[in-house]
Amino acid sequence: MKLIFEKSQRGRRAGTLPTYDLPAAEVPERLRRREPPRLPELAEPEIVRHFTALADRTFGVDTGFYPLGSCTMKHNPRVNERVVALPGFRDLHPLQEEDGAQGALELMWRLQEILAEVCGLHAVSLQPAAGSQGELTGLMLMRAYFADRGEGEQRKTVITADTAHGTNPASVTMAGFQLQKAETDARGNLDLDDLRAKVNEETAGLMLTNPSTLGLFDEQIEEVADIFHGAGALLYYDGANLNAVCGISRPGDMGFDIVHINLHKTFSQPHGGGGPGGGPIVVRDILEPFIPAPAVVRDGDRFRLDYDRPKSIGKVRGFYGPFGVFVRSYAFIRAYGPALRRMSEVAVLNANYMLARLKDTYDLPFERLCMHEFVLSARNLKREFGVNALDVAKRLMDYGFHPPTIYFPLIVPEALMIEPTETEPKEILDAFCDAMERIAEEAADDPKILKEAPHRRPVRRLDEVKAAKRGIVKYGFDQHPNLVGEPAAGEAVEAQKGA
Amino acid sequence: MKLIFEKSQRGRRAGTLPTYDLPAAEVPERLRRREPPRLPELAEPEIVRHFTALADRTFGVDTGFYPLGSCTMKHNPRVNERVVALPGFRDLHPLQEEDGAQGALELMWRLQEILAEVCGLHAVSLQPAAGSQGELTGLMLMRAYFADRGEGEQRKTVITADTAHGTNPASVTMAGFQLQKAETDARGNLDLDDLRAKVNEETAGLMLTNPSTLGLFDEQIEEVADIFHGAGALLYYDGANLNAVCGISRPGDMGFDIVHINLHKTFSQPHGGGGPGGGPIVVRDILEPFIPAPAVVRDGDRFRLDYDRPKSIGKVRGFYGPFGVFVRSYAFIRAYGPALRRMSEVAVLNANYMLARLKDTYDLPFERLCMHEFVLSARNLKREFGVNALDVAKRLMDYGFHPPTIYFPLIVPEALMIEPTETEPKEILDAFCDAMERIAEEAADDPKILKEAPHRRPVRRLDEVKAAKRGIVKYGFDQHPNLVGEPAAGEAVEAQKGA
Amino acid sequence: MRYLSLTDSDQEAMLAAIGVSSIEELFADIPARVRFDRELDLEPALSEPELVAHLESLAARNVDTGRELSFLGAGIYDHYVPAIVDAILARGEFLTAYTPYQPEMSQGVLQAIFEYQTVICELTGMDVSNASGYDGTTVAADACYVAKHATGRKKVVLAETLNPQVRQVVKTYAPGFGLEVVEVPHRDGVTDPDDFRRAAEDAACAIFQQPNFFGCLEPAPELAAAASEAEALPVAHVDPVSLGVLEAPGRYGCAIAIGEGQSAGNYQSYGGPHYGFIAMRSDYIRRMPGRIVGETTDTAGERGYVLTLQTREQHIRREKATSNITTNQTLLALAGLAHLSWLGPQGLRELGETCMSLAAYAKERLGLPLLFPEQTTFKEFGIRVGRPAEEAIRAARDQGVHPGYALKRDYSGMEDALLVCVTEKRSPADIDRLAEVLAG
Amino acid sequence: MRYLSLTDSDQEAMLAAIGVSSIEELFADIPARVRFDRELDLEPALSEPELVAHLESLAARNVDTGRELSFLGAGIYDHYVPAIVDAILARGEFLTAYTPYQPEMSQGVLQAIFEYQTVICELTGMDVSNASGYDGTTVAADACYVAKHATGRKKVVLAETLNPQVRQVVKTYAPGFGLEVVEVPHRDGVTDPDDFRRAAEDAACAIFQQPNFFGCLEPAPELAAAASEAEALPVAHVDPVSLGVLEAPGRYGCAIAIGEGQSAGNYQSYGGPHYGFIAMRSDYIRRMPGRIVGETTDTAGERGYVLTLQTREQHIRREKATSNITTNQTLLALAGLAHLSWLGPQGLRELGETCMSLAAYAKERLGLPLLFPEQTTFKEFGIRVGRPAEEAIRAARDQGVHPGYALKRDYSGMEDALLVCVTEKRSPADIDRLAEVLAG
Ligand SMILES: Cc1ncc(COP(=O)(O)O)c(C=O)c1O
Ligand SMILES: Cc1ncc(COP(=O)(O)O)c(C=O)c1O
Question: Which of A30, D24, D64, D200 falls between 20 and 30 A from D312, CA-CA?
Answer without folding.
Answer: D200
